[in-house]
Design brief:
Length: about 375
């Protein structure tokens, strides 16, 4: 506003000096208001571009009607044409283009020069039209450039929001993965330790050797649980220096046999068989298979009863890995597997379904017709798209 006001004063001064030094272009009673209004157009061109355009057009018509020849203040028409093309509404920009292209021919017709002739008048009209066309083109290009940069800024802001959203999703997924891992590690190993501790307390006086063996199992199971928990919590402590020896590799299908043997040692009879030709599998499939068997055997110890037994089958197909874990115990309560454990206690089965879904497999969990519980899963070798 202040900058435009300054140039309006400059334009007014040039008009006054030019009018005083040059020949009279019209009655002063008309010239002075026209000059003031055109200076006002320059002062308010960016504050009210559409209104100032209409004012400039009205002043131009008044000049034609009152026979006030071209003034230095008419430069305001070029300024408003540029401003409306750059910042005004679309209708105002089109109107400014049409009015600007018509201004020079109308002025040439109104104040033609008899000495130049018709050809000269046409040439002058074309020459005087060029500044209006250039002003409009320059303003429209500025509008296009501003719109382009605004689009780039909007796109950058949108991409930033998308990156933040993706980061939050990734963090949530990683937390969910760690929660599942911790659940599987803690639930399995703690259940083994509890069973061994109860057995050791029962035979402590009658069979000290068996109690000692149970305590050794508790110790080794606890160390295994701590090692796996260090590996998982290391993900959350990337900013600290950690020795590589503190972590252990992720469990795989080959370690299922060790898991079964650990369950047998804790007092749960488990029949383990492998069908098909064993071969390397994707790491996600191997970890999922291990955790499913681990959770299933943990549930058997928790819900199967004192004399429950279990069986584990691994079947290698051409395009996937099949798992079947069954027990002949009492089976888990109905609410733990119905709707994925909606009562808040069936997190193990929920974790199973999430793991299987992540690798694009299928899971079926429920009671056996003859009693007990059954969990079957099919894990494809190719990840789901």
């Amino acid at each position: 506003m202040w900058v435009d006001g300054f140039w309006a004063v400059v334009l007014l001064g040039i008009s006054v000096v030019g009018g005083a030094a040059g020949e009279q272009v019209g009655p002063w009673a008309v010239v002075v208001p026209i000059t003031l209004l055109l200076s006002l157009v320059v002062a308010l061109r960016r504050r009210m571009p559409e209104k100032m355009l209409l004012l400039a057009a009205a002043v131009g018509v008044a000049q034609l009607v009152t026979d006030v020849a071209i003034l230095p203040a008419d430069f305001a028409m070029l300024a408003i044409v540029y401003t409306v093309a750059a910042e005004g509404a679309r209708w105002a920009s089109r109107f400014a283009l049409v009015a600007g292209l018509c201004a020079a021919p109308l002025a040439q017709l109104r104040w033609s020069n008899e000495q130049t002739g018709a050809a000269g008048d046409i040439a002058l009209a074309i020459l005087q039209t060029v500044p209006f066309a250039l002003a409009w083109v320059l303003g429209d290009s500025i509008r296009t450039r501003r719109a382009y940069f605004a689009q780039l800024e909007e796109r950058a802001a949108r991409l930033e929001k998308e990156r933040e959203a993706q980061s939050k999703v990734a963090v949530a997924a990683e937390r969910a993965r760690i929660a599942r891992e911790l659940h599987d590690v803690v639930a399995h190993n703690v259940s083994v330790m509890v069973v061994q501790a109860d057995g050791a307390a029962y035979v402590l006086d009658a069979a000290p050797d068996q109690a000692k063996k149970a305590l050794e199992t508790i110790s080794s199971t606890g160390r295994q649980a701590l090692a796996e928990m260090r590996r998982l919590l290391g993900v959350l402590r990337t900013g600290e220096h950690q020795e590589a020896g503190e972590y252990v590799p992720q469990p795989d299908v080959q370690q299922i046999e060790d898991l079964v043997e650990q369950c047998r040692t804790s007092g749960l009879p488990v029949d383990f068989k492998v069908e098909g030709t064993p071969r390397p599998l994707p790491s996600g499939v191997e970890l999922t298979a291990y955790r499913i068997v681990q959770e299933a055997l943990t549930n058997t110890r928790k819900h199967g009863g004192a004399n429950a037994g279990a069986s584990v089958r691994l079947v290698y197909f051409d395009d996937g890995l099949g798992l079947l874990v069954e027990d002949d115990g009492k089976g888990a309560p109905h609410e733990l597997y119905e709707e994925g454990g909606f009562d808040g206690q069936g997190h193990g089965l929920i974790g199973m379904r999430e793991r299987v879904g992540m690798v694009g497999g299928t899971l079926d969990a429920g009671p056996r017709p003859g009693g007990g519980f059954r969990i079957s899963a099919l894990l494809p070798l190719k990840p789901a798209h």
